[in-house]
Design brief:
By secondary structure, the chain is α+β, with helices and mostly antiparallel strands. It is built from 10 helices and 16 strands. A 5-stranded antiparallel sheet has the order 2-1-16-15-14, with helices on both faces. A hairpin with a 2-residue loop joins strand 14 and strand 15. The protein starts with a helix and ends with a strand.
Length: about 425
């Protein structure tokens, strides 16, 4: 994989110094493996002048490079100063905690919200507490495969707290005769421990497909202790546990069951916390975090439909096609917001033309990583600050897309998929 990326980067570098014939000779000599297809499109990001193209109309899976376009579309809809807000409202003696799809929301943020509330309303007599989760649906994309589901990936949901991850310790007992599974988080999984001591660290974590329950099985052997992080299996339950903890930390006594309900239009906002889109962008474009990418995509979809109903993945895809309607064709298929799906199909022209449009409408270029950052760590150091790009990999797929600036100041948008 590193060899392929090295050749991609060399191509980008040569593209700025060679003519089309030289580039064609270089591509023909590149060793990408038997039967590999190389799709390339390189153009001036301001004038649209095409510098090089090859198999540019071939439909291919963009992998994580799709994040550049889904985040770009979200940026257009949300705006560059958008705040992902979690807010507390009051209506009569009822409280409504309105979720805003803040993927950076923490337990401390919840504590802070109710600290604000208590400070400003010391004698407030709470009748009911509701959670407004109406911003978007909870789901796994239909086109994700089994290995894309739990425990590998988190479910897409507005119920987010501490990244929807929790720690589990797998320990040998003090006498090293058996294996113990320790859960120190207040959110706990019902676990069936089938682990044994062995001569290697080789175990699996699974949930039986025919079970509509949260029971999780640890099977296999361990030779040493290990701390692991797992995605929360039931995010709504986890969120309510953390919400009750935040209430207790503020000495707010509430013993009723917390349910969901839409916030009344004339309710008054009394406390909030938020995180800016620029903070989230690092998770999406620098660290290539699929969960954050999907959440941002869905929040943008909710705003796109003007919060008229609970946003769905279909709304997000409709938003995407509308934003890029000048370049998108019927054969281009978008199935998710992160590039995880094997059913995403684009071509190099669409990717590059869309990047060109994003350059004129957003600050996407500044959000992308440069050499030796994020997914470009230890790569193309000689292009530091001249390259702004996003890489993508899936099984048998390698891609890179972004912008590159020449020494003379010319800016090019490019897309390469193999």
């Amino acid at each position: 994989m590193r060899k392929i990326f090295l050749q991609l980067f060399v191509f980008v570098f040569l593209a700025l110094q060679c003519n089309a014939n030289d580039l064609s000779k270089f591509v023909s000599k590149m060793d990408f493996g038997l039967n590999s297809i190389v799709s390339v499109y390189l153009e001036d990001a301001k004038t649209g002048e095409i510098l090089y193209k090859k198999n540019e109309k071939k439909l291919m899976n963009p992998a994580s490079t799709l994040k550049t376009l889904t985040f770009g579309a979200s940026n257009i809809v949300l705006g560059s100063d958008y705040e992902f807000e979690t807010a507390l409202y009051k209506y009569g003696n009822d409280l409504y905690l309105k979720l805003g799809g803040d993927a950076l929301l923490s337990k401390n943020d919840l504590v802070n919200i109710f600290s604000q509330f208590k400070k400003e309303n010391p004698n407030f007599n709470i009748n009911k507490i509701y959670i407004d989760d109406s911003i978007f649906e909870t789901f796994y994309p239909d086109t994700w495969m089994e290995e894309d589901l739990w425990p590998c990936f988190r479910i897409i949901t507005p119920y987010i707290i501490d990244n929807n991850m929790f720690e589990v310790a797998i320990n040998r007992s003090s006498l090293s005769k058996r294996v113990e599974i320790v859960q120190n988080d207040s959110y706990k999984l019902p676990i069936v421990n089938e682990l044994v001591l062995g001569d290697r660290q080789e175990y699996i974590i699974e949930r039986h497909e025919d079970e509509d329950s949260s029971i999780v099985y640890f099977k296999g052997a361990i030779i040493e202790d290990e701390q692991i992080k797992l995605p929360v299996l039931k995010p709504e339950i986890n969120f309510k546990i953390k919400l009750n903890e935040a209430l207790r930390k503020n000495n707010i006594i509430y013993e009723e069951f917390i349910t969901s309900k839409i916030t009344p239009q004339d309710a008054s906002k009394i406390a909030s916390v938020s995180h800016n889109i620029s903070d989230i962008s690092n998770k999406v474009l620098h660290d290539s975090k699929n969960f954050y990418s999907e959440i941002v995509f869905m929040v943008a979809a909710a705003k796109y439909i003007n919060y008229s109903h609970v946003a769905t993945s279909d709304d997000a895809i409709k938003m995407f096609r509308d934003i890029y309607k000048k370049h998108i064709t019927d054969d281009i298929k978008i199935a998710d917001g992160s590039g995880v799906s094997r059913e995403n199909f684009v071509n190099a022209i669409f990717m590059t033309e869309s990047l060109k449009e994003l350059y004129s409408k957003t600050d996407l270029k500044t959000f992308l990583t440069t050499s030796n950052e994020g997914t470009l760590a230890d790569r193309m150091l000689f292009l530091k600050d001249n390259l702004r790009a996003k890489t993508g990999t899936l099984s048998n797929i390698s891609a890179i897309t972004g912008y590159i600036t020449t020494r003379s100041g010319k800016l090019y948008a490019f897309n390469i998929m193999i």
